[in-house]
Amino acid sequence: MAPAFLLFLLLFPVSLASADEGPFIGVNLGTDLSDMPSPTQVVALLKAQNIRHVRLYDTDQAMLLALANSGIRVTVAVPNDQLLGIGQSNATAANWVARNIIAHVPATNITAIAVGSEVLTTLQNAAPVLVSAMNFIHSALVASNLDGRIKVSTPHSSSIIIDSFPPSQAFFNRTWDPVMVPLLKFLQSTGSYIMLNVYPYYDYMQSNGVIPLDYALFRPLPPNKEAVDSNTLLHYTNVFDAVVDAAYFSMSYLNFTNVPIVVTESGWPSKGDSSEPDATLENANTYNSNLIKHVLNNTGTPKHPGIAVSTYIYELYNEDLRPGSVSEKNWGLFDANGAPIYILHLTGAGMVLANDTTNQTFCVAKDGSDKKMLQAALDWACGPGKVDCSLLLQGQACYEPDNVVAHATYAFNAYYQKMVKAPGTCDFKGVATVTTTDPSHGSCIFPGSIGRNGTSVNGTILAPSSNSTSSGCPPKYFADVGSITSSVIVAFLLLMSVLL
Questions:
Q1: 150 and 276: one domain?
Q2: For the domain that residue 178 is a member of, what is the CATH number?
Q3: In DSSP terms, which residues pair with 344 in a beta bridge?
Q4: Total tally of structural domains belonging to the chain
Q5: Would you call 328 a catalytic residue per the annotation?
Q6: Angle at the Cα of 134 (from 312 to 248), degrees rounded to 5?
Q7: I need a surface site. Which of 67, 172, 237, 255 has the fewest CB within 10 A?
């Protein structure tokens, strides 16, 4: 499967997922949204965030066409409901490859095919044909001379691992040895990798307090709190590494020691119901931020230090149509409009996603917002919100264009920057939204912008000092706003003062 905001991706020179690149961070693309963006909008978001790896759960033709010539590396999938047919017929597999792969490469950079998803734990009747399906798919790629560029594998739930701690004693559920042994032989012989879904959130939730939250979130632990494998004396500081090493040891138990691991799903939900108190924005931010740093810093695991594990974050969008608990709908990095759910705690060169390393996010008026609501929110920002709106006065740099949308955008962003982009400070009762596009124009440089001279404009400096007797607000923003009565404005401002 699911403050501050998001960033990722940078390649390091360690061979793992393929011969020509090092470990990476990618994203999963779920589509259970009531307002699903179009394929072109999805690709535009991926490109804007410099996300170079995406995993699809199918072979949606419109999405594959939209990804053409983008350079984005794509993992596609054989859905579980097609697995039986492909696993029982070489011809069916060949037709699937012709229609969904050959028709799109090389324009669409398909680099992997995930055959089914968590088949051994969710679709056990198809398990006997899983390896056949992988072989048939691979044979079709060989016939088209594509086997060198497209790997074939299948994602597994980490629950196929029994007794995952200590990792050195872990082994795959022996019920599946008749499948796992030929599957690993296939991966080894084709130069592919095992796909593993790793969810420390669920390990933590199901541990009944045995697993500390800090251990699940990659937070630093004192040495006496680290988990130690008594057989190897390896120290584990996080659940993610322990699960990955448990998979390595499980493969070793079956005499496979050279099959790499790619984590196809990992993340943390940003919202949950009363039974999931640790599904929060801050915990999701902490987990994903630390995971990204862990992968891209080339840390590796205690068993394989320096060999990082490429990982796909679950997931790009919050999926409001997913069934189940509240958390099921809230694993995303972005909402359907492309606004970040939170900004990751990341620093350092080369990071990308939702904001760059300079933390460039802005607050702007939301398209289609009611003009009266915008005006009331603008008045609040320039008044009780203590934003310096003097640049909006006639003759000043941000006066033009002289309309409520432009002026509200300036005031909203100034407040957002002044509040250090804290959660909830870019809402204004639903008429504002976060963007990574700098709204500065001409000589009007918005707070938070790098500006023309490369110097960041500090929103706090632009705000009036705490001992100032003037709000710095143009008189026009306390004028009559037409049909909005003063009582409505007062009520709105009181509400905003509570919310903000």
A1: yes
A2: 3.20.20.80
A3: 5
A4: 2
A5: no
A6: 50
A7: 255
What is the pLDDT at residue 90?
A: 94
In sequence order, the β-bridge partners of residue 28 are 55
321 plus 247 within the same structural domain: yes
**In which region does residue 306 sit, left (phi positive, over 0), alpha (psi from -120 to 50) or beta (all else)?**
left
Low-confidence stretches of the chain (pLDDT beneath 50): 1-20, 348-352, 354-358, 452-500
Q: Say if residue 324 is exposed, middle or buried (CB neighbours under 10 Å; 0-12, 13-18, 19+).
A: exposed
* Contacts of 465 by beta carbon, 8 Å cutoff, 6+ apart: none
Burial of residue 407, with CB atoms counted within 10 A of its CB: 0-12 exposed, 13-18 middle, 19 or more buried: buried
Q: Is 276 among the residues known to form the active site? A: no
Catalytic residue among 21, 265, 315, 319: 265
Res 164: pLDDT: 81
Beta bridge partners of 227: 236
**Residue 6 belongs to a domain:** no
> Could you read off the pLDDT of 369-418 as tens digits, one per residue?
899 999 999 999 999 888 999 999 999 999 999 999 999 999 999 998 88
List the beta bridge partners of residue 195: 155, 262
Q: Is the dihedral of CA 278, 280, 283, 284 positive or negative?
A: positive
User: What CA–CA distance (Å, rounded) separates 216 from 197?
Assistant: 15
Is 97 found in the same domain as 192? yes
Helix (H) or strand (E) holding 66: helix 61-66
Which range marks the domain in which residue 440 is found?
362-499
DSSP E strands: which ranges in 342-407? Answer: 362-365
Q: Is the peptide bond before 155 cis (omega within 30 degrees of 0)?
A: no
13 lies in some domain: no
Choice among 118, 315, 319, 328 that is catalytic: 118
pTM (predicted TM-score): 0.70
Question: Is residue 262 helix, strand or coil?
Answer: strand
R_g (Cα) of the chain, nearest Å? 26
